[in-house]
Specification:
The protein has about 575 residues and is of the alpha+beta class. The chain has a single domain (about 5-250, about 255-265, about 285-555), classed as Alpha/alpha barrel (Glycosyltransferase). The protein has helices spanning about 5-10, 25-30, 70-75, 100-110, 140-155, 160-170, 220-235, 240-245, 245-260, 290-305, 310-335, 340-345, 370-375, 400-405, 410-425, 425-430, 445-450, 470-480, 485-500, 525-540, 555; strands at about 15, 115, 120-125, 140, 175-180, 180, 190-195, 200-210, 335-340, 380-385, 385-390, 390-395, 395, 440, 510, 515. It is globular, with a radius of gyration of 22 Å. It binds alpha-D-glucopyranose (GLC). Alpha-D-glucopyranose binds near residues 141, 278 and 280. One of its GO terms (molecular function) is endo-alpha-N-acetylgalactosaminidase activity.
Length: about 575
């Protein structure tokens, strides 16, 4: 985290002086009315698939459907674009609300809205007036906006999402520098804020691409989330015209270009620095973190759905397909861990050479941590945190595993096994507050070396085994996709019992997540929006279509031929 003042100074070059250079009004003018004239989006599914979840629809149906009007009245106190900027929202407009917390959450979410030149374009990270220093919690974070975007889309309010997508795309176009080094063109900001230019009396945007962030790490996840939000917007509204604009097509291509660039890689996974995602501090997630690999996979698939097969798009699409095939093979084979696999690793030989090696990464069985032998149930499995030469990070990370289910990176069997694991290890992975960001915490000497003695990431706190309410929406989505609604209900009940009473904290501490986090912000926006999204999805599972992709059969059979791969 960095103070707002220093951020302003450091990133002044990245300020957006005049955002009017893109014709937003043109887009806004022909934006679709949700549920009226709904077009088919890129990947609408057949009706037969809609019954799969047992709800009112399935995950192929997008966020439209006949239920929207009732949602408006149930969930949207003070809804509608006009009430977004300036006018306080009122929860008294509608007489029926399913849970008192829902109305309260909507009001809190609307209070976090940020307007730019009269139009809402995002939500700030936290509206915590009790906290002394705001650090950068007064900014719009791309990753934090994801559940907000989904909540607004599910509530039939796509304009704010449209505005966010367009403005962040403009920020991508800025030259990004750290000292004398230039970042890749595709990089998207971690966060941005609206500043008033006192001289000219106009508002401008100032963005942070990592040049102000702690550790100066660029957010690898931002571009992926941007693509995922764009696809959710398209799916929900049925309007392909935004994604098809030359500007969006270029934005997608730039993001893709940056992560598909050829280098010295021997793996299809994406090599990253520590702290480049939700865990934005040193936590030993450098290398090939599951969070980034799962998001990468999902973004590749979403990009493939949205790119136009014109001259430039077609070539990119071919590169994406090639990468997807290799990536899914690699992840499903080497990141996957269950009882059988653990037993195999436990018996691994080391120092094997040539293509016939079984222990391809030369993992020493002695490096398997003690906790894992007890933790691993006979039923269940998960994608481990990281795989690189002689290093497997066996920790569980919730976000990566949930996204792997949603993107169908996990096969149906693997997805079911992940849910089995959550059920079997409920106390460890959910406890009293859903959901633990990672398990287990690192402590003692390991904490010293891995985190660099980070006092915020002490054991069972914050990123180091803390519990993050925002992850509730991802767990709920994964539950719906795998048909495990009971798990979602149980988790939501737990959150409901405490979240509002505790003031919507950013995270909880302790092995079970019973304590409000040591330095947790209150009224953390993504805790609020995450709860709303979880509630709305459970109520109408067809919303899942915005954020979930069906299994692509072509990827289940890797095209890697025996001679071209290491497989035996
Ligand atoms: C913390 C989180 C990060 C989040 C930011 C704003 O730094 O680690 O993921 O985006 O707060 O809420």
């Amino acid at each position: 985290m960095e103070s707002a003042a220093s951020m302003r100074k450091a990133s002044s070059h990245a300020s957006l002086a005049d955002p009017d250079d893109f014709d937003l009004t043109r887009l806004l003018n022909h934006r679709p009315r949700i549920n009226v004239d709904r077009q088919r989006s890129f990947d609408d599914r057949s009706l037969s698939e809609l019954s799969a979840t047992g709800g009112r629809g399935g995950w192929g149906g997008g966020g439209g459907g006949g239920g929207m009007e009732s949602y408006e009245s149930m969930y949207s106190p003070g809804g509608g674009l006009r009430s977004l900027c300036g006018t306080p929202a009122s929860s008294t407009r509608f007489s029926f609300e399913p849970h008192p917390l829902v109305g309260e959450a909507w009001e809190a979410l609307r209070r976090s809205l940020v307007c730019f030149r009269g139009q809402p374009l995002g939500t700030i990270a936290a509206v915590d007036h009790s906290a002394g220093e705001v650090l950068n919690y007064d900014q719009v974070f791309v990753r934090d906006f994801v559940p907000s975007a989904l909540a607004f889309l599910m509530n039939g309010e796509p304009d704010i999402v449209l505005n966010f997508l367009v403005k962040t795309l403009l920020l991508q176009g800025w030259e990004k520098r750290i000292d004398r080094f230039k970042l890749g063109e595709g990089a998207m900001p971690a966060s941005f804020k609206v500043l008033k230019d006192p001289k000219r009396g106009v508002e401008k945007l100032v963005a942070d691409f990592g040049e102000s962030a702690i550790g100066r790490v660029a957010p690898v996840d931002s571009g992926f989330w941007w693509i995922i939000i764009l696809r959710a917007y398209t799916k929900s509204t049925g309007d392909v015209s935004l994604a098809e604009t030359p500007m969006c097509q270029k934005g997608i291509r730039l993001i893709m270009n940056q992560c598909l660039a050829e280098g010295f890689d021997t793996f299809p996974t994406l090599l990253c620095a520590d702290g480049c995602c939700m865990i934005d501090r040193r936590m030993g997630v450098y290398g090939y973190p599951i969070e980034i690999q799962a998001l990468f996979f999902m973004a590749l698939r979403c990009a493939l759905l949205m790119l136009k097969p014109d001259a430039e798009g077609k070539e990119m699409m071919e590169r994406i397909v090639t990468r997807l095939t290799a990536l899914s093979y690699h992840m499903r084979s080497y990141f996957w861990l269950d009882f059988q696999q653990l037993n195999d690793i436990y018996r691994f030989k080391t120092e094997e050479y040539s293509h016939t090696a079984v222990n391809k990464f030369n993992v020493n069985p002695e490096s398997i941590p003690d906790w894992l032998f007890d933790f691993m149930p006979t039923r269940g499995g998960y994608f481990v945190g990281n795989v690189s030469p002689a290093r497997m990070d066996f920790r569980w990370f919730a976000l990566g595993n949930c996204v792997a289910i949603l993107a169908s990176l996990a096969t149906p069997d693997q997805a079911a096994a992940i849910m089995d694991l959550i059920e079997e290890r409920w106390e460890e992975l959910v406890g009293d507050m859903p959901v633990k960001i990672c398990y287990p915490a690192i402590e003692g000497h390991e904490w010293q070396t891995v985190t660099g003695c980070d006092p915020k990431n002490t054991r069972w706190s914050y990123h180091n085994g803390g519990s993050w309410p925002v992850l509730l929406w991802l767990l709920t989505a994964a539950c719906i996709k795998t048909g495990r609604l009971k798990i979602a209900r149980r988790a939501i009940d737990l959150a409901e019992a405490r979240l509002a009473r505790d003031g919507w904290p950013e995270y909880y501490d302790g092995k079970l997540g019973r304590y409000i986090g040591k330095q947790a912000r209150k009224f953390q926006t993504w805790s609020i929006a995450g709860y709303l999204v979880a509630k709305m999805m459970l109520e109408d599972p067809s919303h899942l279509g915005m954020i979930s992709l069906e299994e692509d059969k072509a990827m289940t059979k890797p095209v890697l031929r025996r001679s071209a791969s290491w497989t035996v």
